[in-house]
Write a structure and sequence with these properties.
Elements lengths: L3 E3 L3 E4 L4 E7 L8 E7 L6 E7 L4 E3 L7 E5 L5 E6 L8 E8 L13 E2 L3 E6 L1
Length: 123
């Protein structure tokens, strides 16, 4: 059964850094896409970063150059390194996996989601 468990988020000041992790079940490691999404107050869930089965990485324009998605060699843990954080990065962050090819930032292709973790950036 698919299962994703995220680490705790945190609170930082603008310009600070945080790293999120997401531990996947063995089954999930066969996913085509793994990704991080976020949902801020009053906003729709948006794709932040995605990594495909071959290791290709993709980013939302708003985080390019600041965030890095990666995973360990066993493909059991997904990471999101967030640098130079801004108040507008404040949101609940979710990891997700999909066995469908689709478009990485389309939330409808993802069948497994983590529980979500709060990231708060103060100015």
């Amino acid at each position: 059964q698919d299962h994703l468990v995220e680490s705790e988020g945190g609170s930082v000041q603008a310009g600070g850094s945080l790293r999120l992790s997401c531990v996947a079940s063995t089954y999930t490691t066969s996913a085509f896409w793994m990704a991080w999404f976020r949902q801020g107050p009053g906003n729709e869930r948006e794709g932040v970063a995605g990594i495909d089965i071959s290791g290709g990485t993709f980013y939302a324009d708003s985080v390019t150059g600041r965030f890095t998605i990666s995973r360990d060699n066993a493909k059991t843990t997904l990471y999101l390194q967030m640098n130079d954080l801004k108040p507008e990065d404040t949101a609940v962050y979710y990891c997700a996996s999909s066995r469908r090819i689709g478009t990485w930032y389309d939330p409808t292709i993802y069948t497994t989601w983590g529980q979500g973790t709060q990231v708060t950036v103060s100015s």
